[in-house]
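Practice problem 4.
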């Protein structure tokens, strides 16, 4: 199953979520053209190497995803990300994205600074359901307390109990709202 995917439309929900993260930028579709040498989940270094070799510049921002696919799409997520802007101004995502074909939704962010620690994801519920809200709350907790405190070169290590509770809630969501 594909648990993350690109929103099919940049609708009011996507725009509102993006405004809460980067109020002065508009979400847009960016062409996905992964380079063979690029490593998944290493967008900052991938783009830095591309700029060093071919020019252009790096743009930081957020990749927007809905979760899961197939339905029910119960959560929207923003993952801090870097894309390459060519010398002619074309925006391209060169980092391989699992379960994404063709394009991503990206919102630029010139305010959030990349330093020595990971920048945690941001989540919002798409279904008005207490179980979904609890799940999203745990995802945001994981992001704030574990991901954001992890050095860039390391993987976050949230407590197993937190991860187990998230899985339990996800199963409840699927049971309540169905799985197509």
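Answer key:
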């Amino acid at each position: 199953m594909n648990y993350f995917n690109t929103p099919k439309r940049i609708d009011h929900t996507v725009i509102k979520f993006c405004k809460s993260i980067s109020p002065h930028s508009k979400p847009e579709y960016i062409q996905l053209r992964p380079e063979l040498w690029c490593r998944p989940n290493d967008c900052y270094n991938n783009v830095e190497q591309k700029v060093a070799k071919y020019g252009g510049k790096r743009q930081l921002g957020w990749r927007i995803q809905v979760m899961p696919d197939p339905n029910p799409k119960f959560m929207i997520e923003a993952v801090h990300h870097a894309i390459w802007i060519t010398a002619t101004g074309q925006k391209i995502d060169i980092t391989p994205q699992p379960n994404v074909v063709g394009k991503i939704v990206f919102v630029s962010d010139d305010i959030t600074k990349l330093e020595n620690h990971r920048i945690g994801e941001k989540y919002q519920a798409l279904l008005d359901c207490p179980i979904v809200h609890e799940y999203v709350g745990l995802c945001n907790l994981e992001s704030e307390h574990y991901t954001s405190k992890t050095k860039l070169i390391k993987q976050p290590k949230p407590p197993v109990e937190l991860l187990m509770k998230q899985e339990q809630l996800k199963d409840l969501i699927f049971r309540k709202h169905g799985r197509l």
